[in-house]
Specification:
single chain, two-stranded antiparallel ribbon, globular, alpha+beta, 160 residues, endopeptidase fold (from Nostoc punctiforme)
């Protein structure tokens, strides 16, 4: 007899928010992902992934620091996010990964993690990992909100 196991479809939002806030103050470092030492926006999401699940599912390719890059018709950041994060419908919720098109019509070049109904954590160039208001400027650039999956490889998606 097989017993069905009910696993959450997405990671515990409170755990994701707590982990993301643990990165606040980490200095901005392009292509870095080390809590307290340095991170960029993708590095923050990668670091929270490691805290939730362990090893990252894939290594990111080298990427430039310029938000204004329009060179690519492809969407490497968004494509990778869609491969590993859970799709969901509706408005962004705390714990969601936010994907932004900084330049209208350009590729997704920035990401962060929703921490409250109107705030999100992200790495800000020249500063650090900070919490910002999810205001009109950001909402107009939001391409997609995804969630950390609730279960990978049969393991729990949160660790203390």
């Amino acid at each position: 007899m097989t017993v069905a196991v009910n696993r959450p479809l997405t990671a515990d939002p409170a755990a994701v928010v707590a982990l993301a806030r643990g990165w606040l103050g980490t200095p901005y470092r392009h292509q870095a992902s080390a809590k307290g030492a340095g991170a960029d926006c993708l590095g923050l999401v990668r670091g929270v992934w490691r805290e939730l699940y362990g090893a990252e599912p894939e290594a990111p390719p080298p990427y430039g620091p310029d938000w204004n890059e329009r060179f690519a018709a492809s969407e490497p950041l968004l494509s990778a996010a869609r491969r590993h994060l859970a799709h969901r419908d509706g408005a962004p919720r705390p714990g969601d990964v936010l994907m932004f098109r900084i330049v209208r019509g350009g590729p997704v070049r920035h990401c962060g993690i929703m921490t409250d109904q109107d705030r999100f954590a992200h790495a800000y160039a020249g500063r650090a990992v900070i919490e910002s208001w999810f205001n009109r400027w950001w909402t107009e650039r939001l391409a997609e909100a995804l969630s950390f999956p609730g279960d990978i490889n049969g393991g729990a998606p949160w660790r203390n």
